[in-house]
Amino acid sequence: MLSFHLNEEQEAIRDMARKFAEQEIAPHAIHYDERDEFPWDIVKKLHEVGLLTAGVPEEFGGPGIDYIGQAVVCEELARGDAGVGTTVLASCMLGADPVVIGGNDDQKKRFFDVLNKGGLGAFCLTEPGAGSDAAGLSMTAKLDGDAYILNGTKQFITNGGVADYYTVFATTDKKLKHRGIVAFMVDRHSPGVSIGKKENKLGIRTSDTAQVVFEDVRVPVANRLWKEGEGFKLCMMTLDMSRPMIAALAVGNAQAAFDCALRYAKDRMAFGKPIAALQAIQFMLADMAMEIEAARLLVWKACWLKMQGKPFGLAASLSKAYAADMGMKVTTDAVQILGGYGYSKEYPAEKCMRDAKIMQIYEGTSQIQRVVIAGNLLR
After folding, report:
1. If both were cysteines, with which of 17, 174, 187, 340 could 76 make a disulfide (CB 3.0 to 4.6 Å apart)?
2. Would you say residue 60 has pLDDT above 90?
3. Per the residue annotation, which of 127, 199, 228, 363 is the catalytic one?
4. Contact (CB, 8 A) for 16 and 72
């Protein structure tokens, strides 16, 4: 039977992730954000408590956290800092899901051994000329004996400059479009792999976003995930799995902004009383609370459907689109409630607003989610 309550294990995971975010992430988020610096100290601690490998299956040395539990981890980490949450998601969920779905036991062991030792993963799909059009890849994969030769550039790759292992998508023949796409596991330290431009971003500045360049990179056939021509399907299945996690990040970031606005509204005096006594502020807070809770429930529904073995692609896009748009609205309203202080770095609301915008862009824009949703409705 469907339940709106977390089970004991999920509650324990939530409590641990929340405590970690409150004690180890939130106090340092502004420091790393202002310096545009990757938080290696936090990442090391995430590994020590087992949260850095939240998406690694138990049979391959991970904690074996279920899908709802993974979403809870993403939400709680994002309450501390959305960039840190993005780093974890991109490594052990998005970056690892192609291996979870399409890898054989040997591939899984090799990939997850790296993550279990504290290494990071990354998902290499987007290119300078191919973002929303995932079938329009230009990066090539040419078979040469027992290996493929990869050539091309990947753009806006989360963990691109800090990852140890990549899951990479390329094409054997661009004329074949989606039928020519193939997926690989690629060691970051392979000859020919280099890191290009590091992005100077508006938000999630604690996460690393960089260009990754592949020049005559020789990748063994043993590192290919599934068969030639099946990479696009693997990519779409991976994105279905990651979208509720992105939605969970949006929920956590919005919750952090809401918490800030609520505290401020109770403390800030105007016209002889706290501004929380003003109906205009009350209605804003009420709308924010409703929207956050609705987004959270959409995330849980998508995760529940997946755990039940039911189709969940539509629910994944519903959760991602709604939560991303909600996150932008709620964080903007939080800044509005704080007024001039909301526009100041003295309070975290402005950072939450900056961090929120990316949720409408990466892992499929809000417009692409609507394309997916409409396509499901009109079948």
Report:
1. 17
2. yes
3. 363
4. no
